[in-house]
Amino acid sequence: MRLATLAGRAVVLEGEVALDVEVLTGGEFGPDTRSVLDSWDRARGAIAARTGAVAPIAYSVDELGPPVPEPRQVFAIGLNYVDHARETHQPIPDHPVVFTKFPSALTGPASPVELPSAGVDYEAELVAVVGRTARGIDETEGWDVLAGLMVGQDFSEREIQSRGPAPQYSLGKSFPGFAPTGPALVTVDELGDPGDLGIRSWIGDEVLQTSRTSQLIFSVPTLVAYLSSIVTLLPGDLIFTGTPGGVGNRRDPKRFLRPGEVLVTEIEGLGRLETPLVAGRRATA
Ligand code: ZN
Fold it and tell me: How far is ligand 1, taken at its centre, from the CA of residue 241, in Å?
């Protein structure tokens, strides 16, 4: 199943059309995504049962919002691919490096994103969506806790991110639009091996990042187990799982994002984000 948000309403995407969840379930779930995720197992069943007479809606991708517009918690993982940890000259971590992206940074899969400086970087990421309240989850049950997966970008303003005296990732990664996700939340049963998906990003014919999610240092189930050993995971929570090597500020010369470019981020089986980049207001000092 591919769950998305169209005009603020939860929809299921099927080929070229969208089906409204509230209509599809005879009013039992919807209109928003939160009501679906809060009762994920029952909602999935109701969506599959299709009791309501639903009319397919034609849509274009740029009308879609983030599949989970208002998560209560957004976790993000740093240094979670070996080639990325190496390019940053950091040791391979013993434990996941965890920070947050504030939910106001979320935007849709084809929404324009303003660049507040000439130092904004790209980070293609697999995003896991939590499907139930979870605490103390064993790694072997990690996938069962999830509603699904989606494509994400962890846009990062590198100067603010690296302001000392201690690293503070969250603010530099939370400008408006710095967390595009989508185009849909895809349930794991749609994927052959959900732990081994090709991930790529590019601008025009310039490939920026290419890897596979099997290269994650801490896999998705391991991250679920680790996070849930400390905090309570809630339905709709997002986990940005980290980015592969090839980020712009570790290239020589550095390669930051420029207004007028369109950044494409794709994950096998999940779809792609196409993000037009536009000039934005400069960040204050
Ligand atoms: Zn990241």
Answer: 7
